[in-house]
Amino acid sequence: MSDTTVDPKQYIIKSEPYYESVGDEVALYEAAYNARMPVMLKGPTGCGKSRFVEYMAHKLGKPLITVACNEDMTASDLVGRFLLDKDGTKWQDGPLTTAARIGAICYLDEVVEARQDTTVVIHPLTDHRRTLPLDKRGELIEAHPDFQLVISYNPGYQSLMKDLKQSTKQRFGGMDFDYPLEETETAIVSKESGVDSETAGKLVQIAHRARNLKGHGLDEGISTRLLVYAGQLIGKGVEPIAACKMTMVTPLTDDPDMRDTLDAAVQTFFG
Ligand SMILES: Nc1ncnc2c1ncn2[C@@H]1O[C@H](COP(=O)(O)OP(=O)(O)OP(=O)(O)O)[C@@H](O)[C@H]1O
Ligand SMILES: [Mg+2]
Question: Which residues form the ATPase dynein-related AAA domain (predicted)?
């Protein structure tokens, strides 16, 4: 038992998140959830992974607990720790423990960022054991039947130093995500930002050009998220070239030549 009680309802997503399906991902994820299979979502930044998990949690009617991982994160940050208060010591569950107790979908975002000694705490939860040992507390939690673990990572950032161990990777079913096809992405940008589909279509075209520069001077292409930002500024009355510069050029690169190239692509469509 935890020393604090958590109401699962606080983690239920009340209204349906807008998610434009891009393939068979909804059915595949549902099947994985029904098997309580841990799932790994791979794909570039801003392509819809988090939105997809929110949509699926809502569709399945399950609570969702999201944890943004970083390299300073310790196992205790996930599992929990003793806290001192005026009445003495009190155990505080971490988000992973809460999710395992209440039967939530636990989404560990950018899990590669966490150190490997942190990541291994998920191992007993992601195989037939479905348990979580709270060593400091001497408690072994059996995961709630509805509990499922989902992790995301951006394959672009992988390096020899930062990667998941095979013994971690091979506990998950994997799903590849990428920027949606032109027509779908145009619909998303239009719906999310409120710009008309002609303007959204131009933003998507610019992104396509920039995405071809990935690996040729750009580390990442322009994400769907940035296209939505551009649309939002245009919707607020910002002149399109200025809006594109702020959202689709400046954040992406400091290299003057690359900026010129991107500016030229913007000019082609909005000049
Ligand atoms: N299929 C989609 N349906 C609806 N909106 C989408 C979709 N794909 C992307 N978006 C839009 O793009 C934005 C960014 O998506 P999201 O936050 O899910 O990216 P992500 O893949 O989780 O990125 P990161 O790896 O940086 O966390 C969303 O807020 C949404 O506006
Ligand atoms: Mg995300």
Answer: 38-172
